[in-house]
Specification:
It is a single chain. The protein is an alpha/beta fold and 392 residues long. The chain starts with a helix and ends in a 16-residue tail after the last strand. Strands 1, 4, 5, 9, 10 and 11 form a 6-stranded mixed β-sheet that branches. The protein has 2 domains: 61 residues, no CATH class; 321 residues, Aldolase class I (TIM Barrel, Alpha-Beta Barrel), CATH 3.20.20. It is globular, with a radius of gyration of 20 Å. The structure holds ligand V47 and iron/sulfur cluster. Ligand V47 binds next to strand 6, strand 7 and helix 15.
Length: 392
């Protein structure tokens, strides 16, 4: 196998530092790397080395498969009681007039606008407001399921759950059970930011703590449901904070095996209170993907969110451990267009996405939320449907 030979010959390279040899051996023999190793890799800045290691892990786990799915996003509101400094998206409660607040009817109408379209998932996440309480979401999820039972509902984050369950005076378990009964299928990875308490307090003070974020996912996994995890990187955190974040996720995954994919989210600096910080380079992005892939040996998938990093970096990321490029952002998730994503209008049709993956040398697989294969475009031809545009 080419990727195994690449790693074996890399180990023979006399120019490698001793710690690099040690890490390469660990990866070749399926052993874990430590937090210290991860920090070393961030600091060493050896991109070719990282590429060989991350590509090895990627191919051992997922071969050449590169996943995407067809989903659409609904953001119930862009008004939020919290005030995260990096957030380009929320209007503070006092600037409510600049925001939107959808009713359940509004959101059901958005769902209905996809009737007949080949989407498999709705992703629902927005700001936190008191009227979006437990009953509201129970009612919303039940109405979506009544209208389209096969649509997977991936919704809310521990930030919202923590707030609404506290308000309803129910435990995480009871609250999640009620929402699952109503139709919640899985939970996206947002709200994780950075787990280090001091940094979290500085950039996202007031919302759920790191321990609460992890506890919510633990509870969800014990109830038999899956979720994703993210990390917001490239702001005021250090490499040690990144390693700590990855380590807390790896530990929880050892316990529950409930995470499907890890998504590193690059901090974008437009329209927020941290705009004075420069954005990190593409090299830093590729390092982040590769080290995540190498460190998180118990995560099956690493996702690059292409509306955030742009198509070219997303394509490049496939050689740095990434096996999922999310894909089908229908309405150009506002969170990123407001934060200043590389492409102002990141719409990508299914054929374009398939072509991008194939040109990178990988096999495009359309998946559902739980990574069941919907279409394998490495063996199937893409047949244009009535509406193939992933942009509304
Ligand atoms: O938690 C907010 C981030 C997240 C900025 O699970 C920012 O499939 C960068 O979690 N620069 C929400 N990031 C988005 C999210 C997500 C996205 C796509 C797929 C999935 C999934 C999850 O967005 C927030 C926060 O970390 N965010 N502002 C910003 N200025
Ligand atoms: Fe609110 Fe989320 Fe923005 Fe924080 S990141 S202000 S919780 S919408």
């Amino acid at each position: 196998m080419e990727h195994q030979n690449a790693l074996k010959s890399l180990i023979e390279d006399p120019n490698l530092q001793p710690q690099e040899v040690h890490i390469a051996h660990a990866v070749l023999f399926g052993k874990r790397i430590s937090m210290e190793d991860a920090i070393f890799l961030f600091e060493a800045d050896n991109l070719p080395f990282l590429s060989v290691l991350a590509d090895f892990v990627r191919k051992e786990k997922n071969g050449l498969h590169t996943y995407f799915n067809r989903n659409f996003h609904i953001e119930p509101t862009n008004v939020c009681i919290y005030d995260c400094k990096f957030c380009s998206y929320s209007r503070k409660i006092k600037k409510r007039s600049e925001g939107w607040e959808y009713t359940a009817d509004d959101m059901l109408n958005i769902v209905k606008s996809y009737d007949g379209k080949p989407v498999t998932e709705v992703h629902i996440v927005g700001g936190v407001l008191p009227q979006y309480d437990l009953e509201f979401y129970e009612n919303l999820f039940a109405r979506i399921k009544a209208h389209r039972p096969d649509l997977h509902i991936k919704a809310l984050t521990p930030v919202e759950f923590h707030y609404i369950f506290k308000k309803a005076k129910v435990s995480y378990k009871e609250g999640l059970e009620r929402l699952i009964r109503a139709g919640l299928d899985s939970v996206p990875g947002g709200g994780a930011e950075i787990f280090d308490e001091a940094i979290r307090d500085e950039i996202a003070g007031g919302k759920c703590s790191s321990e609460e974020w992890l506890e919510l996912h633990r509870t969800l996994h014990h109830l038999g449901h899956r979720s994703n995890a993210t990390m917001l990187y490239g702001h005021i955190e250090t490499y040690a904070h990144r390693a700590d974040h990855l380590n807390r996720l790896r530990k929880l995954q050892d316990e529950t095996e409930g995470f499907q994919t890890f998504i590193p989210l690059k901090f974008r600096n437009e329209n927020n209170e941290m705009s004075h910080l420069p954005e990190v380079s593409v090299i830093e992005d590729l390092k982040m993907y590769a080290i995540s892939r190498i460190f998180l040996d118990n995560f099956q998938h690493i996702k690059a969110y292409w509306p955030m990093i742009g198509r070219s970096t997303a394509q490049l990321s496939l050689s740095f451990g990434v096996d999922d490029i999310d894909g089908t952002i229908d309405d150009t998730t506002k969170i990123y267009s407001m934060a200043g994503s590389e492409e102002q209008n990141p719409a990508l049709s299914t054929p374009e996405l398939i072509d991008m993956i194939k040109r990178g040398g990988y096999q495009p697989i359309e998946r559902d939320t739980l990574y069941h294969v919907v279409h394998d475009y490495s063996v199937e031809e893409f047949v244009p449907e009535a509406d193939t545009s992933l942009k509304s």
